[in-house]
TrEMBL record:
InterPro entries: GerMN. SMART domains: Germane. It comes from Keratinibaculum paraultunense. PROSITE patterns: PROKAR_LIPOPROTEIN. This is Sporulation and spore germination protein. Residues 104-189 form the GerMN domain. Coiled coil: none annotated. The lineage of its organism: Bacteria, Bacillati, Bacillota, Tissierellia, Tissierellales.
Length: 203
């Protein structure tokens, strides 16, 4: 009796192990489903990447233009010696990029940045703020903010002459009118009359 019971127990254990292995063994259908899921995920990722690239390519890009301009900077030798026989302003050619702001305003901003030549300098005070430069009827209207607009008589004279000389190099500019906060004013920094537009350098 014990022998029969033992045989039955062994048979049951064997059947149970076989059934477990059968359930745990991946079927062909399961493998194919997993492969399909992986392929679908890759397709989705690829589609998302392509969509992102298309969005980036279709995004509007800023339209920039380049132009060689002539900028006038102060001759350091004149400043150091005061020799009236020397050139006070010396031209420096530079290629500028513009688009967000006008070419005329770009020129003024480049003058504020200063020259590349160590023998030259800019006397436009770094703290001045340009509100904009607009052109109408061949006149460039250079609009300064009143805030922090101060300097010596030399700084004011060269600020005016550097800007006037550089803007008059453009074919479309015949005159330069300075404004403060959008209005005509008597002077930029209290030393020089700016009520009328400039058609040439002033010393």
């Amino acid at each position: 009796m014990k022998k029969i019971f033992t045989i039955l127990l062994i048979v049951l254990l064997t059947v149970s192990l076989v059934a477990c292995n059968a359930n745990n063994k991946p079927t062909k259908n399961n493998i194919e489903k997993e492969q399909d899921n992986i392929i679908d995920e890759r397709k989705e990722n690829t589609t998302e990447e392509k969509s992102q690239i298309q969005v980036e390519e279709s995004s509007p890009k800023a339209d920039y233009e380049k132009k060689e301009v002539i900028l006038y900077f102060v001759n350091n030798e004149y400043i150091n010696t005061g020799d009236e026989n020397l050139e006070k302003l010396i031209p420096e050619k530079r290629i500028v990029k513009y688009g967000d702001i006008s070419l005329e305003e770009t020129i003024v901003q480049e003058l504020i940045k200063g020259p590349k030549d160590d023998n030259l300098s800019t006397l436009i005070p770094a703290n001045v703020k340009i509100l904009g430069v607009e052109v109408s009827d061949n006149t460039a209207f250079v609009n300064f903010s009143q805030e922090d607009l101060y300097g010596s008589s030399m700084e004011e004279t060269f600020t005016i002459n550097q800007i006037v000389g550089s803007l008059l190099e453009l074919d479309n500019i015949k005159r330069v009118q300075f404004l403060i906060d959008g209005e005509k004013a008597e002077s930029l920094m209290g030393h020089f009359d700016i009520t009328e537009p400039f058609e040439s350098l002033q010393y």
